[in-house]
């Protein structure tokens, strides 16, 4: 069979293929650049009058139209490249093979397979992977460079985009799968995954990662998990003379003090230490201040409320302190706006404030833990799996012992299936300090609670 006389110059044909591949590369990179560009920086540049940045922001807002434009361009470039290779270079290669004595039909089949594989390889490497990597590295510059072409193209092919959208929606309606909004919201787990990736690549530092993670966990916590426990509150009885508690409230360095009448479950107001100091200066003495006239209304919140809900309410009502009550109306603790903010940004300390760390590592498997440490924090930091209705280590160990301890009982030992605990100190029937020794992982002793005779040092 004679060779097809329509085969042209191989150099010209390769040039056309290179141009089509570069077009594919341009649009692939454009897609990656616009999607991954820093939106906050683009917004700032747009506000400063950068027209290209404004165009990037405008195109990004209609992501469906933008991605459709890119997809149409890439698809057309790919089809043109494949069709040109099949109708030109394949024929040239087939003609060469036919001259070697191979039938033209077989030569054409071999040529199509070889050219298709080579074309796919170069399209993937040069037309997809390399431009996308470059676009990731220089997202802002790349997006600024390509955005005018993308914008103009989207206007030119808008009828095509409308036809494609209408056809897609029509087919989905026939299948009963059409919804007004097909795009799913980004999940919390997806954002956390992106945060991990961003930290590894240097987009976020450790502090930013920790704060963002804290924001996600903020609405998962109950107020009782972060409040100041009742026994740790600094509160005063309105009926007591000022000279009986003045030293305590001054040394506490708290700016707001709960005031109760007869018992702490009857809190009647909050005393601002700023107002107290101003009034003391007016009357000439701390001891002559009438605390009752300085009291501000109390804001109460349930211990089962989420921290974000309490935070929002305190913001709306301009409250700095909330008294936390249990299901029976009794006071179980208090929380300040600072306590809530610390759940996001970490602990805030005064320059001369002594920092008491809830969980302190002694060696590989030994820790010194405050009785007020939360079980959730202990489980996370020590990789334990304590399950209890109590919130703190003090409550959990009291639950294991099944009795209230006094200072005379210390030290005393108790254990569960994961660790051995030595209770070192107790104040006001509350366990304050504990030594924790983790058991070896291979030790699978059933969970038990009980006392052991204290070993004398």
Commentary on this structure:
This protein has 457 residues and is of the alpha+beta class. The chain folds into 4 domains: 166 residues, no CATH class; 30 residues, no CATH class; 123 residues, CBS-domain; 80 residues, Uridine Diphospho-n-acetylenolpyruvylglucosamine Reductase, domain 3. Helix content is 53%, strand content 14%. The strands form 3 sheets. Strands 8-9-12-11-10 form a 5-stranded antiparallel beta sheet, covered by helices on one side. It has a 4-stranded mixed beta sheet with strand order 1-7-6-5. The protein has a 3-stranded mixed beta sheet with strand order 2-3-4. Strand 2, helix 11 and strand 3 form a beta-alpha-beta unit. Helix 4 packs antiparallel against helix 5, helix 5 packs across helix 6 and helix 8 packs antiparallel against helix 9. The longest helix is centred in the first third of the chain and has 37 residues. The chain is elongated and about 110 Å long. The N terminus and C terminus are likely disordered.
């Amino acid at each position: 069979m004679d060779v097809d006389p329509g085969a042209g110059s191989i150099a010209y044909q390769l040039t056309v293929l290179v141009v089509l591949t570069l077009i594919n590369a341009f649009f692939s990179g454009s897609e990656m650049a616009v999607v991954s560009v820093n939106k906050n920086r683009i917004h700032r540049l747009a506000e400063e009058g950068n027209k290209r940045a404004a165009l990037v922001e405008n195109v990004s807002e209609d992501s469906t139209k933008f991605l459709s434009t890119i997809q149409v361009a890439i698809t057309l470039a790919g089809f043109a490249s494949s069709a040109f290779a099949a109708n030109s270079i394949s024929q040239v290669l087939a003609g060469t093979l036919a001259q070697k004595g191979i039938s033209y039909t077989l030569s054409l089949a071999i040529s199509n397979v070889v050219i298709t594989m080579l074309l796919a390889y170069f399209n993937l490497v040069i037309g997809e992977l390399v431009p996308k990597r470059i676009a990731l590295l220089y997202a802002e510059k790349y997006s600024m460079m390509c955005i005018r072409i993308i914008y103009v193209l989207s206007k030119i092919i808008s009828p095509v985009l409308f036809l494609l959208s209408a056809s897609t929606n029509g087919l989905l309606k026939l299948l009963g799968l059409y919804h007004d909004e097909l795009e799913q919201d980004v999940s919390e787990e997806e954002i956390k995954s992106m945060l991990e990736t961003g930290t590894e690549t240097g987009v976020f530092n450790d502090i930013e990662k920790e704060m963002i993670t804290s924001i996600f966990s903020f609405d998962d916590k109950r107020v009782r998990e972060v409040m100041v426990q009742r026994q740790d509150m600094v509160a005063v009885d309105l009926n007591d003379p000022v000279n009986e508690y003045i030293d305590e409230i001054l040394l506490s360095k708290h700016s707001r003090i709960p005031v109760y009448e007869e018992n702490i479950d009857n809190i009647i107001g909050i005393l601002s230490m700023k107002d107290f100091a101003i009034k003391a200066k007016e009357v000439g003495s701390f001891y002559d201040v009438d605390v009752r006239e300085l009291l501000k209304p109390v804001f109460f919140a349930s211990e089962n409320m989420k921290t974000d809900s309490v935070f929002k309410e305190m913001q709306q009502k301009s409250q700095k302190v909330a008294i936390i009550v249990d299901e029976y109306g009794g006071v179980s603790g208090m929380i300040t706006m600072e306590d809530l903010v610390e759940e996001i940004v970490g602990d805030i300390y005064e320059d001369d404030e002594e920092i008491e760390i809830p969980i302190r590592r002694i060696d590989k498997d030994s820790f010194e833990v405050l009785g007020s440490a939360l079980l959730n924090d202990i489980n996370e930091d020590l990789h334990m799996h304590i399950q209890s209705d109590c919130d703190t280590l003090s409550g959990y160990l009291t639950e294991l012992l099944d009795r209230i301890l006094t200072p005379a009982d210390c030290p005393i030992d108790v254990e569960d299936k994961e660790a051995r605990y030595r209770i070192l100190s107790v104040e006001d029937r509350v366990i304050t300090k504990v030594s924790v020794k983790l058991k070896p992982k291979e030790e699978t002793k059933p969970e038990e609670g009980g006392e052991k005779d204290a070993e004398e040092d």
